Each structure stands twice: as C-alpha cells, then as structure tokens.
UniProtKB/TrEMBL annotation:
Residues 1-30 form the signal peptide. The keyword Signal applies. It comes from the Bacteria. PANTHER family: BLR1237 PROTEIN, TRICARBOXYLATE-BINDING PROTEIN. This is Tripartite tricarboxylate transporter substrate binding protein. InterPro entries: BUG (IPR005064), Bug_dom1 (IPR042100), TAT_signal (IPR006311). Belongs to the UPF0065 (bug) family. It comes from Sulfitobacter porphyrae. Keywords: Signal.
Amino acid sequence: MNCFERRTILGLAASLAIASAGLLPDLAAAQDYPTKPVTMLVGYGAGGQTDLVARGAARVLAEQLGQPVNVVNKPGAAVLSPRAN
C-alpha cells in the first residue's frame, strides 16, 4: 500500500509540473532564432539545376526566417565538417 501511495504522489507531482509548464508559455517560449544571416552550402558549381533550386529555397527560407540566406557554391564539398574552412 505504501508503494501505491508513493506512485500516486509522484504521478500527481509530475502532472502538476507539466501543467504548470503549459500555463507559463512566456518562460517556455523559444528565443528568436536565427539572429544572423544564414549560409546555405551547395556542393555543386554555380549555374546548374541544383544551384537554381537552392537559390529558390533560400528565397523562401529568407521570407520565413526573416533573415537573409546566402547561397555558397563549393563544388566537390559533399562532406563538410566545421573544420573544413
């Protein structure tokens, strides 16, 4: 019986915590993101079909995000790591 009471109390505490997080949306709201221009890397040369699609997608992303999206063509850059630059 003691175990059942402990589970009940823990369940009520968890549901109270979840409900209070839902009632405080200002504290749980995400920050504005992105705050800087976005760079889209394209692994093919400029002027091809992939470049045209990437530039169209960048235009739509810029409207949705409210930040400019720069398209950078790097032929042969299929695998990029943060240290590749």
